[in-house]
Amino acid sequence: MPLQLPLELPWLKNTQLVDVEPALSPYLLEAQSLTAKLKETCDKFSVTVLANEFRSAPDALRTELSEQVWCREVTLNCNGKAAVFGQSWLNEDACTVGMDAIGETPLGELLFTDSNWQRGTLEFLRLSTVDYPALIELIAPTTGVAPERLFARRSWFKNGKAKILVCEVFISESFYD
Hints:
Elements (H helix, E strand, L loop, with lengths): L24 H4 L5 H8 L3 E12 L11 E11 L2 E10 L1 H5 L10 H7 L4 E2 L3 E6 L4 H7 L9 E11 L2 E9 L7
Antiparallel strand pairs: 1-2, 2-3, 3-7, 4-6, 5-6, 6-7
């Protein structure tokens, strides 16, 4: 793909959120596993891996992670349709504990079942789809019609020196009805 999310921008705390669609709110604000939340509401849940590779770290992550990082991009799918675009950035220590080689296993399943991983604060951002045509391709590959703005959230997970930044963009039109 690769999709460059605006990691350098100031993201919002949940107390700063406004105009969140009612259908999206329970997912966006879910403090536990988004994977588990999606599985509760989907008849069929799946993960599609879009990228799983070493990359140069975005400038905003170089201090926290390093120059070279592992990037994993996926869609979390409900009933055959992409619901969430996920982008995770892993430092070398996270790779050495095997988090870079999980295939189609949802990352959330692993992070939330291992108590050594501690989640940081959720932060939020509203993205304009005009700035991210790759997201439109995921949302509506045939029609090109997508919501004008999409919500994203991110949080850090840490396990000793291992660090992962998980970013999730809510791309299903059902979140914005």
